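Box 3.1 A note on notation
Throughout this textbook, protein chains are presented in two layers. The first layer is the amino acid sequence; the second is a token string describing backbone geometry. Keep the layers aligned when reading.
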Amino acid sequence: MSFQPVVIEGEYREEEHAPALLNPASHCLAEIDFDHHKVHEGDSYEVSIAQDVAGEASLDLLVITPNTTKWLHMFLEGQSEAEGFWYVYRDTNSTGGSGITPLNKNENSINTSGATITSGPTVTTPGTQIRIAKTGSGNKVGGFIRGVGEMILKQNTKYLFRFTNSIAQDKWVSQQLTWYENISRN
């Protein structure tokens, strides 16, 4: 049986092409998914916060997206010690809070995110609810959530990522937002 060689090329950077690579040990096509690629490119970021949340209170993160076509492709992860609800709202009316500097997931990169992230903003109105999930059951079991797929956030928009403690006791909660930034081709 004879095989005809085929050259597979892919876009490396905008307007640059390079041949696909084979793993030298297995002779299999070497590939990584796009969000992993964005880590290598220095365009992937994260913020996280962990603290006790009072009974029937909320832990809020405000994300303001830049007014550019470099859009945020975001994932939400969270853990809680007890029952609670995870919400994502768009077009929130919020002010104040403490700024959080996004961490570039490639520590060798000097790139910075175009997003503004704030913890503990004063929320006048949460906005339009676009996602909801529940974790835990009463005071017995906590939970873990990872958003189903990525959300491509609208440019120049305020988003509220909120966990609300459903029980009357203080419980530990952590929220992590991870995202990469990519120029829209639309």
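The first helix runs from residue 34 to 41. The chain has one domain: 45-183.
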